[in-house]
């Protein structure tokens, strides 16, 4: 029963994202991978970009901590009622950690922010195209199954 309430780490955000948005993100990733099948010289630069891409967790943490800091300052300088906002953010972060959902998540996903797992799938596919895994597998269709 606990496994039903708390999904696997790599599944929690996609489970709470609209199927259409998940599919848009997946198709965009596949398009990016297809582009590098034809232009392999750009793979190293793309891998560098992926190393710096913000995933949903990082974006959410940065925004939540900003709101917590602002609400704490407002509580100290204006009214203690601002701590209610701090508490709400804490609750939503806990809910996100456990279940993978929080109020801003649908918007974050619509903006195209991917999970770390989705980013790593693209990274793995690009490394496959580059030939990093040639000793293990040579089937080009394997790339499609990675995403």
Number of helical stretches of at least 4 residues: 9
Total domain units: 2
Task: Give the integer mean of the pLDDT values.
Answer: 92
**Helix-strand topology string:** HHHHHHHHH
Could you say which overall geometry the principal axes of the C-alpha atoms support?
A: elongated
- CA-CA gap between termini: 29 Å
Q: Report Rg.
A: 19 Å
- Which consecutive residue ranges, at least 5 long each, have pLDDT under 50? none
Number of strands: 0
Estimate the helix proportion, in percent: over 70%
Q: Helix/strand/pairing class, anyone?
A: mainly alpha
Residue share in β-strands: under 5%
The largest sheet, given as strand count, sense and whether it forms a barrel, is: none
Protein name: Inner membrane protein YgaP-like transmembrane domain-containing protein
InterPro entries: YgaP-like_TM (IPR021309)
Domain Inner membrane protein YgaP-like transmembrane: 56-107
Structural write-up:
The chain has 147 residues and is mostly helical. It folds into 2 domains: 14-53 and 115-147, no CATH class; 54-113. Helix content is 70%, strand content 0%. It contains 9 helices and no strands. α3 (19-38) packs parallel to α8 and α5 (56-77) runs antiparallel to α6. The chain is elongated, with a radius of gyration of 19 Å. The mean pLDDT is 92.
